[in-house]
Queue: 2 jobs
Job 1
Amino acid sequence: MVIHWIGNKLWIKSIIEEKIGIARDKILFSEHHISHAASSFFCSPFSDAAILNCDGVGEWATTSFGRGEADWTGNGKNDIKLFEEIRFPHSLGLFYSAFTAFLGFEVNEGEYKVMGMAAFGEPKYTDKIYKVIKVNDDGSFGLDMRYFSFPYSTRTTFSRHFEKLFGRPRDPKARFVTRETSLYDDKYPLTDEEARKNQYYADIAASIQKVIEDVLLKIADHLYKKTKLKKLCLSGGVALNCLANTRILKETQFEEIFIQPAAGDSGAAMGAALYVYHCLLAKTRKFILKDAYWGKEYTQEEIKGFLVSNNISYRHIQDENELIGLVVDSILAQKVVGWFQGRFEWGPRALGNRSILADPRNKAMKDVVNIKIKFREPFRPFAPSVLLDKADILFEFGKSKDQYPLKFMLYTLAARRGDMIPAAAHIDGSCRLQVVDRGSNPLFYRLIERFYEATGVPALLNTSFNLKGEPIVNTPENAYMTFLNSGMDMLVLGNFILYK
Ligand SMILES: [Fe+2]
C-alpha cells in the first residue's frame, strides 16, 4: 500500500512535469482529506465551521474531522486543522461499498441504488451488521477484517465469512421489481420466491443505510462536543448520502450544513487548489459556491451550427416566454422533455441545465421515465425540483429551507403533500428534492413557476439527462443522440425545440 502510494505520487509529479512543463520542486501536494475539507469549507459561506470528511480512503485517512477558519477581510489568516482521524482499512466508505457489491451493484457507482433500495425494506438486520463493525460512543469504529477482502483484493470487497453471515450476494442481473412498479408487473408478475429474495436484500439495504446514518450521527455529535460550532462542512463520497445528511441536520446540534455538489473525489482537485490559495498563499476569501453551474455552455450559434450541419429539423423560439409556454404545454400533455440549457452542472446531480423533465403529478410517469426513457431499474426514484418560495406547500422544513445542500439535491425530506407529486416521491414518501431559487437559475425557476401557475403544484420531476450507465450529456450532440435513443418526446437545446 505504501509503496503503491509513494509510487503514484512520484508518477503524478513526473506526469505534471512532462505535460505542463512545471518543475518538480514547484509542485505541491495537499493531503487527500485536506483537499476534501478545503473543497467544502472554502466554498461555504462560513467563517468558522466544523469539518467532517468521510470517504473510501485517501492516503490513509478514511474519516477525519477538525475545524476551518477563514478570513474575509484581509487581516487574518485562513486555516484548516484536522485533529482526529480513522485510518485504512477501517473505512465507512469501503464498508458501504462492500454492501453495494453484495447487493449486486457496481462499487463507486451503485451506492445511490443501495440508498434507493433501502426505502423498500426494514432495518431488520442491524444486529448482524454490528458483527462486522464495532462502533464506540464517540463514533470511532473498527471493521472486523475477517469479513472484508478489499485490503488484499482488487476484485472483491467482502470475504467468504461475510457470505456465511449474510448469505449469497444478490445476482446483479436479477430484477428488483416490486408490486408498486406496475408497468413491469403486468408483463412479468413477481413470483413469491422472487418477492421473498427482493425483500431480504431490501431489508439488508435498509439495515446498512441505518447503520451508516447512526455511525455518522455519533461522529457528528462528537465533533460538535469538540468544537461547539453550529456550522458544519461535510465532504468525501459519504457526504453524497443525502439520507444521512438530513439526519445530521435534524438530530445534532449543528444548525447549518454546507456540502459542495462534487463532494466526492471529483471535487478534490478544486479543494487542493483552494487549500494552496487560501492556506499556503494566505489569500483572502471572497468566493462562495452559490450554484453548480460551472461547466461548459454552448452558444445559440454553436447549437444552430450543430443542427444545420446534421440536417436536423427544429423550431427556433426567440421569445423566452413562448419557449417556456411550449415546454409546459408539452409536460401538461404528459410528454417527457430533454432540457439542455446554459452551463453543465458541477457534481453528479442534474440541477436543471442537463435534465429530463416530466409531470410529477402523474404516478405512472415514474415507470415511463425509468423504463421507457432511461432504461434503468424501475425502483429508482426521481427528484422534484421545487420553487424555493413555494416549497412549504410540499415540504416541512426543520431548521431552514435556505441551505445549500437543498439547492444541490443533498438532503432527503418527507413530503408533506406526496399526493401532489407521486411520480417524484419515493415509495416511503421521501423526496431527494432540489430547491430552486430565482437567482441561481432564473430560466429553470420560470419554467417551474409557469407549471405552478397552470397546476398549483410548484415542482417538476427532474432526472439527469442520460440513459442507464451513461454519463450525463454535455454537448448538444450528446443530448441529441440520447434523445434519439430514448423514448423522450421533445428536446429543448437552448432556444431550439426538436420533436420526435
Ligand atoms: Fe476521497
Job 2
Amino acid sequence: MGNIKQQSHPEHDILIAGGGISGLALAYGLVAKGCKVTVLDAPTPTNKASRTNVGLLWCQSKFQHLPNYAKWGFHSCRLFPELTKELEEISGLEIPVNYTGGLIACLGENEYESRRNYLVKLRETLGDYPGGMISRSELEGKLPKIDFGPEVVGAAWCEDDGMIEPLTLMHAYKLAFCKLGGNLVETLIHDITPKDGGYSVFTDKGRMDCGRLVLAAGLANRRFCQFAIPKLPVSADKGQVLLVERMPPVMPIPLLGVTQTFGGTIIIGFRHEFIGHDTRIVPEDVAIEGRLAMRIWPELSKKRLIRAWSGLRVMPNDQQAIYSRLPEHPKVTLINTHSAVTLAAAHTRHLPDFVLGGELPEMARGMTLERFGYAC
Ligand SMILES: Cc1cc2nc3c(=O)[nH]c(=O)nc-3n(C[C@H](O)[C@H](O)[C@H](O)COP(=O)(O)OP(=O)(O)OC[C@H]3O[C@@H](n4cnc5c(N)ncnc54)[C@H](O)[C@@H]3O)c2cc1C
C-alpha cells in the first residue's frame, strides 16, 4: 500500500466495494432512489463469477429446506420483466431474456422419482408451485428440435424459470447506473478500514472515504470484512463450463446443465466442487460433464467444443444468501449469494432500503449473519 495517496475529494455517500452483478444490481437500485453512489471494481481471477455464469433465472430445484429463500427466488424472477424493461429504457441496450420456463431432464426412473419427491416437498413448502413433472413425450413437445437420448424418461418443469444474457444485464446496469449519476471507478481495492465513524478504502487510485459502505466483492468479502468478522462463512464453489459450437435456435426453453445461449452456442455445466481457489480447467472433469450432456442430447457428440472455462461461485456455508450489517458496524452492509443473477431483481428493488438503515423484506429477514451467531 506504499504508493496510495490521499484523494482530494474523499467523501462518498455510499461506496460499494465490488461491481459484479450483486454490486451493480444494488448500486442501480440506490441511484434510482436518488443516493450518491460510487462503485469500485477490478476483476480478479478468483472473483469473476459474474463474468463466467450461465445466466439462468432459476427457481426450481432450489431450497426446499429453506422456504423463504425458495420464495425469494420466485419473487425475484417475477420482478424481472418490469426491471429489464426499465433498464432497457434507461440504458438504451436490448437485454436478451426469455421467460419461457425451465426444464431439468431426468436420466432414468430413479432420477425421475427423486426429482418428483423433491417437487412434492417443494410444493408443500411453498403452498403453490407453478410446474411439475412431465413425461418424455411432453418434454419432446416443449423442445421438438432436440432428439433426446434413450435414457431420458421425462423432466421437471417450472413456469417461472427463464434465462437472461448475463453480461448484457451487467452492461445495462452499468449504463443505467452512470446515466442516473452513479460513479463507477475501475480500481483494485487493497484494504478497507474503519475511520472516524466512517470507512477508508485503499485502492490503486488512492484512498477513498465514505460514510456508508457495501461489501459486494464476492469471495473477496472474506478479506474486506475482517475488521468485523475474522472468518466469514462463505466458500468458493467451483464450476467448469464447456461451450459447444453455434447451432441454429433449437432450444427455446432452457434445460439445466445443457443450455443454448442467445448467441446459439451450447453451454454445458453441472459440476460443484469445494476445492478452494483452484480455477484450473481439469480435462478429466470436463470430459465427465461432456459425457453427461451427451446422454441427454446425443447429437452433441457430433459438435465441436470451442471453449472451456471455470468460475468460482460465491457460496454461503448454509447455501442461503447473506444480506447483513456487520456486528458493531451498522453502516456496513454485506451481500454474498450464489444465485446473484436470479436474485438481481430482488436485490435492486429491496436491498437499497436495507443499506439505508431500513428492514429487510419479510422473506429475507432470516438472511442476516445472526444465523451464524453474530449480533448485527
Ligand atoms: C459456472 C457458474 C455458473 C453460474 N450460473 C448461474 C446461473 O445460471 N444463474 C445464477 O443466478 N447464478 C449463477 N452463478 C452464480 C453467480 O454467477 C454468482 O452468484 C454471482 O456472480 C455472484 O455475484 P457477486 O457480484 O456477488 O460476486 P462476483 O461475481 O464474484 O463479483 C465480485 C466483484 O467484486 C470485484 N472485486 C473483487 N475483489 C476486488 C478487489 N480487490 N478490488 C476491486 N474489485 C474487486 C470483482 O471484480 C467482481 O466484479 C453461476 C456461477 C458460476 C461460477
